[in-house]
Amino acid sequence: MSTRIIYLHGFNSSPQSTKARHLGDVLAARGERDRYACPELPPAPCDAIALIEAELAGTGGQATLVGSSLGGFYATWLAEKHGCRAVLINPAVLPHVGLRAYLGPQQNLYTGEAYQLTADHLRQWQGLYCETVTPSRYLLLLETGDEVLDYRVARQHYAGAQQVVVEGGDHQFRSFSQHVELILRFAGIES
Q1: How far is Cα 166 from Cα 142, in angstroms, rounded to an integer?
Q2: For a disulfide at 89, which of 68, 121, 169, 176, Cβ 3.0-4.6 Å?
């Protein structure tokens, strides 16, 4: 079975995000769209993990996770649990701390879905936190201008992992298209 890439979008995002669409388009242009999946992650962490694990189950262990922000947090937990590789883009390291300020009504930026962010979400994220990671599993992509997350927290948490730190940028990781070939090589997909 060939390697599949499973893209995990961030908090209040969707498969319609710029990075998700771009990665899918690159693989489609190469005739490899069947290697790509990007599930729409539900707000509840336990439901998101169950959905991603269902995607992983169909890969025969031949998958690389690509996670942005909260998707990077999920990718970390799953990479440690299943022993797969993961590309992390401006990942959330401590969403159970950082998203506490957003408790209450939420709306997905792409789908318009309204829901309540609750203390139960925070508890579930805390339960998924990996205090230590296996650095060789990860490619970490950071932009120092991330206005949402302090890139230094991720840089320290994933010390020893392959890291690309880009000066400037923002939380959306503006330089994403410049790193797609690196992401594909890390996943074992050569051009």
Answers
A1: 6
A2: 68
Amino acid identity of 157?
H
Domains and CATH numbers, the chain: 4-186 (3.40.50.1820)
Return the HEC string of 157-175: HCCCCEEEEECCCCCCCCC
Q: Of 167, 10, 190, 185, give the one whose Cα is nearest residue 88.
A: 10
Question: Residue 164 in contact with residue 186, Cβ under 8 Å?
Answer: no
pLDDT in tens, 103-114: 999 999 899 999
pLDDT digits (tens, 9 = 90+) for 128-139: 999 999 999 999
pTM summary value: 0.96
